[in-house]
């Protein structure tokens, strides 16, 4: 298939593109910068220049594709409304372009806010609706397009998709620990984060492209929930700083994504594994932290 990928040179996107190429697909990647374009070209990917605000490029990429993978996000935590608006506009452009074609559209989502006091499951609908909601309510916007003849699938990623070269949430937490000279957790540290290795996430996406039914909600989750206290202790040990519980006036130690680290984001992937015959085999998050990669590159 000819597959158009937003976020093709990003963390999850790069691993996914490698898996798509290995499976024999032809990939067209949206590239914002010269560096991103060069990295994609070196892999044999056709480049379409543009970003999430360039809706004409997104529309053209979707028009020419047999399937679309939307993996890009601005991740502007200072101005979330900017990220939410761009996400919603991009998803709306893709579903409008694919309407009536039954072509496949896989879009990235998350597990935050899906459940309280228990692991989220694939049966949990996203509570986020409308342009002002987190991610611009894009998961519901995409899945609602099934009734318009779009083979839409939501892939919900763990709060940490980890591995060598990760520059996401765990890398940001590591940088915060190094900056402040100490680290810790909110409350008693029993809230949990789900996790998945980036190679396992990429394999799930390729499997979903072939086998996920329209309207499916999939969970890219390998570990259901790791207590954040254990994550903080591993980060503290790796950076070489003291760790402990943080009071309400100390949460700046966690950095700009500290509010995420205080959330309980456990999630199950039992139904996804059964549906796609997907078995994660990559290292665990604590194994990746113990290997030292996050601390060598921080």
Describe the structure.
The protein is an alpha/beta fold. The model has no long low-confidence stretch (mean pLDDT 95). It is globular. The protein has a seven-stranded parallel β-sheet with strand order 3-2-1-4-5-6-10, sandwiched between helices. Strands 7-9-11 form a three-stranded mixed β-sheet. It is 39% helix and 20% strand. It folds into two domains: 2-158 and 197-221, Rossmann fold; 160-195 and 224-296, UDP-galactose 4-epimerase, domain 1 (Alpha-Beta Complex). It has twelve helices and twelve strands. Pfam families: Epimerase. Residues 3-213 form the NAD-dependent epimerase/dehydratase domain.
Task: Please outline what is shown here.
The protein is of the alpha/beta class and 298 residues long. Helices cover 39% and strands 20% of the residues.
Radius of gyration: 19 Å
Give the CATH H-level superfamily of the largest domain: NAD(P)-binding Rossmann-like Domain
What's the domain count? Answer: 2
Strand order of the largest sheet: 3-2-1-4-5-6-10
GO molecular function: aldehyde dehydrogenase (NAD+) activity
Pfam family, one: Epimerase
Protein name: Nucleoside-diphosphate-sugar epimerase
InterPro entries: Epimerase_deHydtase (IPR001509), NAD(P)-bd_dom_sf (IPR036291), NAD(P)-dependent_oxidoreduct (IPR051783)
